[in-house]
Amino acid sequence: MTEQNIPKSSRLVAVSNRTAAGEESRAGGLAVALWDTLADTQGLWIGWSGRILDFPSNRARRSEEDGVEFALTDYSRDQFDGFYLGYSNSVLWPVMHNRIDLAVFDSAFYRFYVEINEKFAEIVRRQADKTDTVWVHDYHFLLLGDILREEGWQGKCGFFLHIPFPAPEVFRAIPEHRKLARGLCAYDVVGLQCRKDLANLAQYLEEEFGAEEQPDGKFKVDGRLVHLLHCPIGIDSSGFAEAATAEPAARAATRLSRFLGERDLVIGVDRMDYSKGLPQRFEGMADLFDRYPELHGKISFTQIAPPSRSVVEEYAQLREQLDALSGRINGDYGDLDWMPIRYLARGYDREEIAGLYRLAKACLVTPLQDGMNLVAKEFIAAQDPEDPGVLILSQFAGAAEQMKEALIINPYDSSAIAEAVKQAIEMPLDERRDRWQKLYTNIAEQDIHWWRHRFMTAFEGVQA
Predict the structure, then answer these.
(1) CB-hemisphere CA count at 13 Å for 24?
(2) From start to end of 176-298, where are the E strands?
(3) Does residue 162 have an active-site annotation?
(4) CA 47 to CA 299: how far, in whole Å?
(5) Cα separations (Å) of 186 from 61, 122, 376?
(6) Do the Cβ atoms of 277 and 394 come closer than 8 Å?
(7) Which of 45, 58, 273, 414 is a Cys-bridge partner for 287, taking CB atoms 3.0 to 4.6 Å apart?
(8) d(CA 368, CA 96)
(9) pLDDT tens column, 180-203
(10) How far apart (Å, rounded) are the C-alpha atoms in residues 193 and 438?
(11) Which CATH number fits domain 237-445: 3.40.190.80, 3.40.50.2000, 3.20.20.80, 1.10.1660.10?
């Protein structure tokens, strides 16, 4: 795909908490989406270095990798605790995922959130000029655009929210909700994963700020025009399909096949997070084994769940809950030669995961709330077209809006999970092929390059 929507005189400046600095960080996600554009425009990627110091520092170390420049900055221990663990992941993350009960509303957290947003705004201001196109990513930097505007920034500035935007009454639970929303309105383009997210944000802006929708779909808020853009993120579908047949994928599949024997594999791959619905998924599998004893020894469920944010109490509690559930289910239903659940609390390489997807008869993607969930798309990309597996997808995953040929279920309903797994492993080959073909056509057409192009095209007509 060409970058005709970005004038050659315009450089892309990407801002995100973590970057693709280092070759091991370039396998997927934002790296695939942004790398070509950054390289073509001699662009710059600004983010956190991953280092935590004993003292605050405003330095941004410059480096260059394969035509892309990086400006990476460090956090102090207090900034990491207050900004990252505190406001970003103990306030914004739970509220945006409809878990107000888990939010910790501490005013000190917000002070650090402002401090880091100001720090990154200053780096942008020093490193960029008004001919550049600045693209800010995710909930860590809701305020950055507004801070830039206050400092006199006149250039193009867009924002993409990778996680859900909740209903207005939920978002209002955040004490600083108006400041955050005003920050969003400072961007020229705000990209959202789902139509529901866009509708939620539009309703909030109309109720709180009297926003007026314009004929072109933009919204006028306090005299500024902001383009709310429905822009579901995709994957590198062809690249992932190739990875699923590569040697590392085949080796991983062979290793698991030795354990499986003739059993059908049902797989789940998720970061260990309370938004992913893992306890409910385990209960659904227990329900399956309880309802259908004839399936004992015939299927094996493997859940890969690398820990995340393990220093946060809620995540440590989730780990304990999953340990207890998997132990109970294996004790209740297992046999001398069969373990119903294999629960692996560690990560695997992208290529290995692709091989496991290709081996699976069904994949459970059952978050309680998710902005998109790219596991669903990766599973489809990895399948053998002649003998594809079946995707079981939560109605609350953003991907459900696009992937209607999956088996869509309510993740809170253990019986629905059980019935969907049974339907998937018994589904006739012709139906599996038909569902897969429609799903793959969608993810191939609306892939990661389509997503990037759609967002960048939205800048056309914005005056720097």
Answers:
(1) 2
(2) 189-192, 212-213, 219-221, 224-230, 264-269
(3) yes
(4) 44
(5) 27, 16, 33
(6) yes
(7) 414
(8) 12
(9) 999 999 999 999 999 999 999 999
(10) 20
(11) 3.40.50.2000
DSSP annotation of 152 reads T
How many whole angstroms from its chain centre is CA 125? 28
Q: DSSP character for 402?
A: T
Which listed residue (140, 370, 447, 453) is catalytic?
Answer: 370
Active site includes 97?
Answer: no
Does this model's pTM top 0.70? My answer is yes
Catalytic residue among 97, 137, 140, 162: 162
What are the tens digits of pLDDT across the range 265-303? 999 999 999 999 999 999 999 999 999 999 999 999 999
The number of C-alpha atoms within 13 Å of 312 and in the hemisphere containing its C-beta is 25
Scanning 292-373, the segments in alpha helix (DSSP H) are 313-333, 350-359
CATH placement of domain 12-234+448-457: 3.40.50.2000
* Exposure of 406 in the CB half-sphere (CA atoms within 13 A): 30
**Are 357 and 378 a contacting pair, CB within 8 Å?**
yes
